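hey m, so remember when u said the tokens were messed up on ur end? i reran from scratch. heres the input so u can diff it against urs
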Amino acid sequence: MSNLIFLNDKIIKETEGLLGTLDRGFLYGDGLFETLRTYGKTPFRLEDHVARLSNSAQYFDIPFHYTSQQIRQIIEHLLTGNNLKDAYIRMTLSRGLGFNGLIPTGTCTPTFAVHTKPLPAYPAALYKTGVSLIISRIRRSATCPISCHKTLNFLTNYLIKREAAEKGAHDALILNTDNHIAECAVSNIFIIDKNTVITPSSKANILPGITRKIILELCKENGIHASEELFGLERVFGASEVFITNALMEIMPVLKIDGHAIGKLVPGAITKLLHDKYKSLTY
């Protein structure tokens, strides 16, 4: 039985979803995407994901007219039709069919798709043992304006993630061209130094992760000192705890970076506390 998807105002079978060969998402990577997950059929922090997509669409002048409520209903229909509860959700927005070269003339007709799939769960053991990271050889531009948006231009992230996989690591830590820690290929990073939770500032040219935002909220609510800063590798290696975050993985402790062991205990006390508090939000 074919999976159902939402494409341009219709719910259809995935095998019937057709895109034009002149779609700018296909031609130029001219588009955006969001990934999130559901817990028991409820999309987690959907409003935040839609707001990020909408803000980026506005920045790039890509028409986007769906509200969180409309997308929530679309997801409900898809979950029911695909018989899913804990699911992976992907929203993809392309500028769509455009005309005549790189700067389109006339009005573009955007393409918007929503996919729901079974959630590929991370092995439970990893949350107890932690994962290993490497330091990527690829640098992040400190000034490139697309790095802080989740665009369909994802080849650099692919190369960084492949570099990690080839070295048997879960992900790779990216330094920017100013020698500051930015993030990983598919996750934000946090360190804990003297009981303070620290994450790279937006000035490091990072994607403002939704899970990252929730962690900062949880720190505030639970009296944990947190800050957003610019810092380098030496601060990471000196940290008592390190963890990485994204919407599918939640909070994952880091055991070692480039073979260098992090802290004395994995997961550390603050990482575990934040993980438990995050879990309580999701159910």
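this time it looks ok to me. The chain has two domains: 4-118, 126-282. if urs says something different then somethings off w ur setup not the seq
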